[in-house]
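Action item from last meeting closed. Structure (349 res):
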């Protein structure tokens, strides 16, 4: 029986290549490190942007990825490269993306319906849930505990003569929008701190620890009078701008926003306006509508905003966790079982 040919199309440490290669005798794992950019940090999926291939190396790289039954990673993490190899390689059966929101990368490739039916796409959803839930928690806590004021006072060497009351997460109602793996983990973490957690989701599938679940069309009602909102939405069909001006306006004055999903899911002009007016007292943003965030964006200069350059999901264990997820899916793929995190190629999440 011919072995399943798995081509690693992203930078990957040898220990994880070996772990995958030895996980099942029915697979053959192939990687050519000299054709891949060096990693700048652990679990760097894109690699050094300064890396370039010679024409001969590019020809070798395309031939390599075009020989795959399964691709581990999107070549060069580019939608155009994904589209090219899907069309050049009729034997390609499955692509494992590194991003939890890998569906948006598949969507950007503009594949035909036939191509989307022919190739299975899976994401790394769940791998990043813990780190992103921690960021959301950090963001809401930072707003609740007046981090901007504390930093301002520290910078001025100023000890106020009067104390003030900070907010407690345990007294808050927190709206989590998007209840995939990241959103569910956010719900759990906030509930464990005693918050009342309200969920907004495309489906009404029950989620543990929620006090109430609303469908996406009822997001304004869900936000009514809430103390904080967490964006955990994927960049999928129907999610762009879902956290709308009306939803943000419905929050309690002085509410906090933490964004760990996709930046396009928040009405950014409205968010900026409300941060300036005080309708939103604080925002912790790991994602923005345009990335990198343009230098002229008002968000850079707002004192009540903290910005992380889409890095809150990263951890030195990320590649290890994705490898384990992939190994689980390889066995399911070979045994005719059900794969985890298959992209819905109508909604792209």
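Sequence:
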């Amino acid at each position: 029986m011919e072995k399943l040919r798995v081509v690693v199309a992203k930078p990957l440490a040898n220990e994880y290549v070996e772990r995958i290669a030895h996980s099942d005798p029915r697979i053959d794992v192939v990687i050519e490190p000299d054709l891949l950019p060096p990693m700048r940090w652990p679990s760097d999926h894109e690699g050094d942007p300064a890396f370039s291939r010679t024409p001969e190396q590019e020809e070798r790289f395309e031939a390599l990825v075009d020989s795959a039954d399964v691709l581990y990673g999107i070549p060069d993490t580019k939608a155009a490269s994904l589209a090219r190899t899907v069309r050049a390689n009729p034997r390609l059966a499955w692509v494992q993306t590194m991003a939890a929101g890998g569906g948006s990368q598949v969507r950007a490739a503009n594949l035909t319906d036939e191509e989307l039916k022919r190739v299975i796409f899976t994401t790394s959803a769940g791998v990043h849930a813990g780190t992103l839930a921690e960021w959301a928690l950090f963001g809401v806590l930072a707003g609740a505990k007046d981090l901007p004021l504390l930093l301002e006072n520290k910078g001025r060497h100023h000890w106020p003569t009067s104390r003030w009351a900070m907010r407690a997460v345990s007294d808050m109602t927190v709206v989590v929008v998007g209840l995939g793996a990241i959103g569910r983990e956010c719900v759990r973490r906030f509930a464990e701190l005693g918050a009342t957690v309200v969920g907004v989701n495309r489906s009404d599938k029950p989620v543990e620890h929620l006090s109430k679940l609303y469908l996406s069309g009822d997001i304004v009602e869900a936000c009514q009078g809430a103390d904080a909102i967490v964006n955990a939405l994927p960049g999928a069909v129907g999610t762009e701008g879902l956290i709308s001006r009306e939803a943000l306006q419905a929050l309690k004055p002085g509410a906090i926003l933490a964004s760990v999903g996709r930046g396009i899911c928040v009405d950014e002009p409205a968010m900026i306006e409300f941060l300036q007016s005080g309708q939103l007292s604080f925002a912790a943003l790991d994602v923005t509508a345009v990335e990198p965030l343009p230098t002229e964006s008002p968000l850079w200069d707002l004192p009540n905003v903290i910005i992380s350059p889409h890095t809150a999901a990263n951890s030195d264990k990320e590649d290890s966790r994705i490898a384990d997820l992939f190994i689980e899916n390889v066995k399911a793929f070979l045994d005719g079982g059900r794969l985890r995190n298959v992209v819905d190629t109508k909604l792209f999440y």
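Note appended to the action item: Residues 129-307 form a domain with the Rossmann fold fold (CATH 3.40.50.720).
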